[in-house]
Amino acid sequence: VESSLEGLKVLAKGRSWRSVLSLSSEVLRAKSEAPMSQEPLKPSSMCPLERLLVMQLRLVAHVRTKGVGQAAEEVRALGDLDQPKYMYESYPGVFGVEKRGSFVPFGLKLLRAEIWYAAGRPQEALDELYRLLEEEG
User: Fold this and answer.
1) Cβ pair 39, 73 in contact under 8 A
2) What's the CA gap between 97 and 102, in Å, rounded?
3) Closest C-alpha among 128, 10, 8, 122 to residue 59
4) How far apart are CA 17 and CA 98, in angstroms?
5) How many other CB atoms are found less than 10 A from the CB of residue 57?
6) pTM of the model
7) Per-residue pLDDT tens over the stretch 38-79
8) Span 17-25, mean pLDDT?
9) Cα–Cα distances in angstroms (integers) from residue 70 to residues 14, 66, 73, 74, in the given order
10) DSSP codes joined into one string, 70-84
11) Which of 65, 66, 79, 90 is nearest to 112 (CA)?
């Protein structure tokens, strides 16, 4: 399987969750990203949306392998998904100047709530779900 988002999708489709975790670490490391670093990243060749999609698959793999604690740590490392770094307008060279708003996938937002709940943090889970409802309203 190739070391890319597409390779991760192939592994996820085959339910090879441990392989998803291993390959996602490799993909992020190759692109100067860290799976759950609080430190500023080196310049990256990975599109910010692609990074979130890799992280989404990684979080699903953690949940599927009963690694909810690790998933919660990685969710925490992502920080507030409403930050400017998760907005199209912060990357006009990547997404163009006409795109506006958040590029965070809905599935990732929902997955965060599920992880908080499974990690024994129901208030954070509810906060995430209420934020989703506010976005739709």
Assistant:
1) no
2) 14
3) 8
4) 37
5) 22
6) 0.86
7) 444 444 578 899 999 999 999 999 999 999 999 999 999 999
8) 97
9) 22, 9, 5, 6
10) HHHHHHHHH--TTSG
11) 79
